[in-house]
Write a structure and sequence with these properties.
11 helices, alpha/beta, 451 residues, five-stranded antiparallel β-sheet, eleven-stranded mixed β-sheet, 21 strands
């Protein structure tokens, strides 16, 4: 047996053990402590979209999203990791390092794809905002190399699991077909097999567990709809070709009614084949959507299923609390690069509490720490240890303090930045600063108290 075959067998055994262990234990124990374990690092650059002020019109947002330089034709709007890794390799690496430093060891890799007309100047480099070309059911050579390089980087940085997601866009999206289109179905099915092969090749000699989301938010549509028929057909073809041990099926954009989760479960039941775990995206009113998911699972006596939340707002302790109270068997939570901001799809690159561009210790005698925050609207947390309140924060006229909690020796204050802020914090020996859940402090005692 080759090393690659041995690694594949080991991965499958691990998944089966996890699956049956979860079924056995779920009837007797509650879910383990809920926390963010994964992230969706899907955007390499926000471009002009991130320069817009709050509440842009749809026209303004669309123009910024798909913008190109009028002279060079290069994209200057949203750019995905797969489409632009070669332009932003160092940035992506540093973002992954930040995620790893914050305990994130699972990554979601989203391939948004459409059959773009490469003769159209809007798509000259095979990208369209966040979308890459799947023309001829293949990535362009540069994008294939980007995918391979990104996978190699994730492997080198010791991410333990990767969820590969296919996001159908443009002509590839079934809901836009009008009627069943076998040619378009075959196009996307062939593209999935081709890109899956790349993933398997690059990770063959690693211990990384791979999961596949066969259609990002394609799960749970009405069974007689074009999208519902697409999912049922692909579920049949994928099972026949690859089995079910490495897939979550189709992720679901949850609704308060639980209807889509119900429909997805019914599709799996009708096929007499369930995936190892199911994946849901929870945005909007998180509490009501979790309740709807619970009802859908309970009604079909499937509360023991492992649940992966593949998308939810980034860095929110209140959301983690809601998930913990949901009584769902949640095994992983993946942060999306968006805080509770319903007007946009993204508001940052790194899916953590904030994307502060600089954290610098500038005081030579370590008698103060300086935070340089460049993103208007960022939220960060300051915790002080063995200090009565927050001392000598003289620049608070530039910000609004809206919540302070004290628990034992630790005081937590959340601050909403209103403008560019440079803040000197004295008593650095007793202060601990957490930004994006990244701890910066000058004493072991401080770091220990933060955990």
């Amino acid at each position: 047996m080759t090393i690659g075959a041995m690694m594949l067998a080991l991965k499958i055994i691990c998944k089966i053990v996890l699956f049956y262990t979860s079924i056995t234990l779920s009837a007797y124990t509650a879910s383990a402590e809920i926390r963010y374990t994964g992230a969706n690092l899907v955007i390499a650059d926000g471009g002009l979209l991130f320069e817009l002020g709050p509440g842009p019109s749809k026209k303004e947002a669309d123009e910024a999203w798909y913008a190109r330089d009028q002279f060079t034709g290069e994209p200057i709007g949203i750019q995905s990791v797969i489409g632009s890794y070669h332009r932003f390799e160092n940035r992506v690496r540093s973002q992954l390092e930040l995620l790893r430093a914050n305990g994130i060891d699972k990554m979601s890799l989203l391939i948004w794809h459409a059959d773009l007309n490469l003769g159209d100047p809007r798509f000259s480099d095979g990208t369209w905002g966040h979308v890459v070309s799947s023309h001829a059911s293949r990535l362009l050579p540069q994008h294939e190399q980007n995918l391979r390089n990104y996978l190699m980087l994730l492997k080198q940085m010791n991410f333990s699991e990767i969820v590969v997601r296919w996001g159908l866009q443009g002509k590839n999206r079934p809901r836009d077909w009008g009627e069943w289109d076998e040619e378009k179905y075959q196009h996307s099915w062939e593209f999935l097999q081709y890109s899956r092969e790349i993933v398997e090749e690059e990770l063959a000699d690693s211990s990384v567990l791979i999961w596949y989301d066969l259609g990002s938010e394609l799960g749970g549509f009405a069974p007689n709809s074009i999208t519902g028929r697409y999912a049922a057909r692909l579920w049949k073809d994928y099972r026949y070709t690859f089995g079910t041990e490495d897939t979550v099926g189709f992720s679901v954009a949850t609704l308060p009614t639980g209807e889509r989760v119900h429909n997805l479960l019914a599709m799996f039941r009708a096929a007499n084949a369930f995936p190892m775990r199911i994946a849901v995206d929870v945005n909007g009113n998180v509490e009501t959507r979790l309740r709807g998911t619970y009802r859908a699972l309970s009604n079909q006596d499937l509360l023991g299923l492992d649940i992966v939340i593949l998308e939810t707002y980034a860095g929110s302790l209140s959301i983690i609390d809601e998930i913990s109270r949901s009584s769902l068997n949640v095994v992983d939570v993946y942060a999306w690069p968006l805080t509770d901001n319903r007007s946009r799809h993204f508001d940052r690159l790194v899916p953590l509490v904030s994307s502060i561009s600089g954290i610098e210790v500038t005081c030579p005698e370590a008698d103060c720490l300086e935070i340089v925050a460049n993103n208007i609207g960022d939220v960060f947390v300051i915790r002080t240890v063995d200090v009565d309140g927050l001392k000598d924060l003289r620049e608070y006229d530039k910000s609004e303090t809206f919540e302070t909690k004290r628990s034992g020796r630790v005081t937590t204050t959340s601050i909403q930045l209103q403008s560019k802020l440079e803040q000197n914090l004295v008593n650095a020996g007793k202060l601990c600063i957490a930004i994006d859940s990244l701890t910066v402090g000058s004493s072991t005692e401080c770091v220990t108290a933060m955990k």
